[in-house]
Design brief:
This protein is about 70% helix and about 5% strand. The protein contains 10 helices and 3 strands, in the order ααβααββαααααα. A 3-stranded antiparallel β-sheet has the order 1-3-2. Strand 2 and strand 3 form a beta hairpin. Helix 5 packs across helix 7 and helix 5 packs antiparallel against helix 10. The longest helix has 23 residues. The radius of gyration is 19 Å and the shape is elongated.
Length: about 240
């Protein structure tokens, strides 16, 4: 099991389920859900993988009930599929569905840029610059996994800082689903395309810092649409 998922659960439970009434049960359900989500996001659980309730209960040191609830929550989030008499599986997002998700993503992130251009502070600007610089370092070292992680953090920070929690929640669910796309990843992305992403990120930060909402929204929309090409899909 992914060490981060296991340590997250054990940090609170010391390896054993904690029962503090309804509130404690809900907290445990959330921790189990997060552990399963971490396994999906880390690639331990790949699209099409089967999840067995009793096996995950044993591995997480909990009863089957919170695992069952976590399965239901992740099904509602579009990450799992549950079939009667067959079991629970990690969803596979088709290229067609991924294209539809990216089209919605382009609209959401463009709107987030418009909101952020009006409220960007020095701290957020500095963090965006730091993430872009770190991406550049990762590219120099040919650390594609690190590059992809930083790229996701850059986009997530923009949406999270826009001041609309509902927008951020919808965005995160959509990104989790895109992670299950049949063409997700940076393993085959050309280096020139990855350099192009860095240039677009720098231009985007400049537009945000200048409070040019129209320019920031246009750059972001073009940026996401360009990444819809299989060779340039990083999220």
């Amino acid at each position: 099991m992914n060490n981060n998922a296991e340590s997250t659960l054990n940090a609170t439970n010391d390896g054993h389920p904690k029962h503090d009434g309804a509130g404690g049960d809900q907290a445990l359900n959330t921790r189990v859900r997060d552990a399963l989500l971490d396994a999906i996001q880390s690639g331990e659980l790949t699209p099409g993988a089967k999840l067995v309730e009793v096996e995950w209960a044993n591995r997480l040191g909990v009863s089957r009930a919170p695992v069952r609830e976590a399965f239901r929550a992740l099904e509602q989030a579009g990450l799992l599929e549950m079939y009667r008499n067959r079991g629970v599986f990690v969803r596979t997002v088709s290229e067609h569905e991924a294209d539809e998700l990216r089209a919605v993503r382009a609209l959401l992130e463009s709107h987030a840029c418009r909101l952020l251009a009006e409220r960007l502070d020095a701290g957020n600007a500095a963090e965006l610059h730091r993430l872009v610089d770190a991406m550049s370092d990762a590219l120099t070292l040919d650390d594609r996994e690190r590059y992809a992680q930083l790229n996701r953090a850059f986009h997530d920070l923009i949406v999270a800082s826009a001041g609309n929690r509902k927008l951020h929640g919808i965005y995160r669910d959509m990104i989790d689903q895109l992670h299950l796309s049949t063409r997700a990843g940076t393993d085959e992305a050309p280096v020139d395309a990855m350099r192009g992403v860095l240039a677009e990120h720098r231009a985007l930060v400049t537009a945000l810092a200048s409070r040019d909402a129209d320019a920031a929204a246009q750059i972001m929309h073009r940026h996401i649409v360009t990444q819809a090409h299989p060779a340039q899909s990083f999220n």
